[in-house]
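Researcher: Here's the sequence for the chain we discussed earlier.
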Amino acid sequence: MVKTHSYQRARLANASGKWPLLLFSHGYGVGTESQNTVQMEELASHGYVVASIDHVHEAGAVPLPGNVVAAFKAPPSFTDTAAMARGLAMLERIEAAPDTGALLVAVRDMQRMVPSLDTSIVRWTDDTRFVLDRL
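Model: Thanks. This is the structure I predict for it:
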């Protein structure tokens, strides 16, 4: 285990004033809430409050109470080789978009192609609101 200067569920210092906040969300499927600890600690050393969110079943693995680990649950389209190839082609289209209009069209096309992304967007938004409501 790597020793860090981070704390789970840390409380803010009893000091007046406002603190800049950064919320970190891991990458879809393979990420974890601790994957960028070095960068988050660097930001914290400059006065930022940094909170990292685990999105259950959309992260590599999320530890839950009772010694349970919630693993990533891939949507059916992720196990279909042809669908994966279409998804990768769509990502290339997004990356190559020459302007904002083309980017938005490509992103909307991808959302139509992978409807489970809509569920993920709602879940990640709910998770983010949950964290913000408790800070």
